[in-house]
Amino acid sequence: MAARGRGAAVRWSAVGALVAALVALPSLLGALPATDTGVSAAGLRAAVLASDEVGFSGYAVSAGGLSLPVTDQLTSVADLFSDRTSMRVWWRGPADHRVDVLTATGETGTHRDALGTWTWEYESATARRTVPGPLELPAPPDLLPSTLGARLLSEASADELSRVGARRVAGRDGLGLRVVPAARASSVERVDVWVDGDSGLPLQVEVFAKGSARAALDTRFLDLELAVPDAEVTAFSPPESAGLREDGGFDLVAAARQITGPALPLTLAGLDRRPVEGLPRGLAVYGRGVTLLAVVPAPGRLAGELRRALHASPGAVVDELGVRASVGPLGLMVVDRPGGRPYVLTGTVTTEALAAAAADMPELGGRP
């Protein structure tokens, strides 16, 4: 009996050691030295921009340290950038993919097709359909390192790019590409993108605010398979028993259509206005690449909620222009003028840039 007991203990010890090794495997792979190549910064950027049709599946995690002001209408956006978001992704292309956000209480799936997006909430068995617009609030697919990395690199100029070595990400060699924005208004110190040398897919993206050594946003793949998923995995049709509802989110474009008065200027805070098809005169986006500034008309309720939240933010500035604050690299400002309509300035710009933009804004009219 004693001999058999000792044999069982040895066998279970071996099983325990194997389990421990499997659990530690991802961190061990990440600790392995990465192999760099001689690819230039321009060449690596070109590889990223050519990777949008690469099919893959995997598991990604985004960690945001931005404690954004929360409002009833923008809670989901605040959650994306202030919490840890775990995502399972199947990607056949920009117009055919699925991203499931996994939480302790369940899952929410985002299915993109050629005509729009289905959002499926598993626990409530509720489906919501949305169609693409000229300007949309961030959604989980926008936080994937592959999506975010490509967008942030898409408009970077050659003098803003440099190589920064290599590291292991998701068991693959990630080649480092750094963006240091040139715009004086930018609140971003740098963006580091770690790129798979074989496919050009960004494996990890880190965004650093000026004056901070810790990333304000870090999104990375923990597991990645480079193969096109089956079409039935990304496709979605609501079950007959599902509840259907229209998108009840804050419609930026609808609010902007109510604006009257002079057109928004061509330049704000030293940033040029972007030509975005379909935007009404009361809404505009300025800047390029990493440095962006949006002018958003705010209905009375939203303006009031944001105003109260900003007042409570550390370091908030309140003056005759309104109330403004910075949360990491993100600046937010509610502008109020006597007799005018409130509006919000927000983007990856400094609070000084927000104040300069507010001072140059024309009077906005329209229904509050």
From TrEMBL:
This is Transcriptional regulator. It comes from Blastococcus deserti. It comes from the Bacteria. Gene3D superfamilies: Lipoprotein localisation LolA/LolB/LppX.
